[in-house]
Amino acid sequence: MARLRLLPRLLLGACLALCATGVLAAPPSDDDIERLLKASRAESMLNAILPQMEAVQRQQFDQLTAGKPLSAEQKAEVEEIHARTNQILRQALSWEQMRPLYLEVYKKTFTAEEVRAIARLYQSRAGQSLLDKTPALTQNLMQAMEQKMIPMLEQLQGELQTVAEEKAKAAPAKKK
Predict the structure, then answer these.
(1) Is 61 domain-assigned?
(2) What is the pLDDT tens value at each position of the chain, 176 positions in all?
(3) Is residue 4 part of a domain?
(4) Is 8 among the domain residues?
(5) Which long-range contacts link 92-101 to residues 24+ away (Cβ below 8 Å)?
(6) Phi, psi at residue 6, to the nearest 5°?
């Protein structure tokens, strides 16, 4: 009899827990995401990436035309195409175009509470320091990784050389 009275209470508790979970996992509002994007300097970071992407694009154009004798007219055409692709890139990655994408992706990825907490972090002194120092941190990490990779690549090159020499020695032995 006592077990029968306990069942409705358990069901009520389970329903309340499910409802609470739904409230806690509510998607963030556009305003919450806007605050986070502002605090994290998302627009300026996007704008900082554009020159880097243009430089990569310039390298690709240079590689495509490297070693090819181009007339002045052909060079002008290449430059015009490069300018147009830069314009398309800048339009496609403009804040006006990307902002809705950011809103959508943040809504899919984070809960409202997470967005608010992350925004508070970025609004704090420590968060601002993190944003200020992230480019230097990234550069320092890349340099450290490069220093770590150089000996590994040299070792790998030595191993490949050894394998090639062993195969070269084994090849005449097979012919006999």
Answers:
(1) yes
(2) 555 565 556 555 665 555 555 555 789 999 999 999 999 999 999 999 899 889 988 898 888 888 888 889 988 998 999 999 999 999 999 999 999 999 999 999 999 999 999 999 999 999 999 999 998 999 999 999 999 999 988 898 999 999 888 888 887 766 65
(3) no
(4) no
(5) 93/46, 93/49, 93/50, 93/53, 95/43, 95/46, 95/47, 98/46, 99/37, 99/43
(6) -75, -30
Instruction: In whole angstroms, give the CA distance from residue 50 to residue 152.
Output: 33
Q: Do 110 and 35 meet the contact criterion of CB atoms below 8 Å apart?
A: no
- Quick one: tokens of 113? 């509470």
Could you tell me if residue 56 is inside a domain?
yes
173 HSE (CA, 13 A, CB side): 5
Number of compact structural domains in the chain: 1
Residue with tokens 């320091």: 129
* Greatest CA separation for the chain: 96
54 closest CA partner among 92, 25, 106: 92
- Can you give the residue range of the structural domain that contains 52? 25-135
How far does the chain reach from its first CA to its final CA, in angstroms? 93
Burial class from Cβ neighbours inside 10 Å (0-12, 13-18, 19+) for residue 172 reads exposed
